[in-house]
Design a protein that fits this description.
The chain is mainly α. It contains 3 helices and 2 strands. A two-stranded antiparallel ribbon has the order 1-2.
Length: 137
């Protein structure tokens, strides 16, 4: 896969995660007063980072597998296999009613998420403008 296609694919995945995160934050805020409600987080960027780093971690000597039941000493993780996961937060507490949604924190996360989405769209537009300049020139 060429650099342009990979960059656009990564930006597309990040925008998808941002949309899911927006839905999760909205759900958290809608249930901020519901007793025993547990907020949800979105886990994507950290898993994507691990997958991208695994591409650079190839050992200098890879063992050859002589039997299908042998374990490989290295397995590269394809970033395209990373899924957007919703994870319940059971570890934190906020209110006396068992609910762990902090509306102030959720609004801050919503603002951060919107800024990230805007950055992703601007980066994608820049990538396409570079291709457009090459095609014109």
């Amino acid at each position: 896969m060429n650099t342009f296609a990979r960059t656009i694919d990564l930006l597309h995945r990040a925008m998808d995660a941002s949309v899911v995160r927006r839905q999760v934050i909205a759900n958290n805020l809608a249930n901020a007063d519901v007793p025993d409600f547990k907020r949800t987080n979105v886990n994507f960027e950290s898993e994507l980072k691990r997958a991208l780093e695994s591409e650079k971690m190839r050992p200098p000597l890879e063992m050859k597998m002589t039997h299908e039941k042998h374990f490989p000493n290295f397995k590269e993780r394809d970033y395209r296999d990373v899924q957007i996961r919703r994870v319940l937060d059971y570890t934190s507490t906020y209110g006396n009613n068992g609910n762990n949604v902090d509306p102030e924190q959720e609004f801050m996360l919503a603002t951060q998420n919107q800024m990230s989405y805007t950055l992703y769209t601007q980066a994608a537009a820049f990538e396409f403008s570079q291709i457009n300049q090459v095609l014109r020139g």
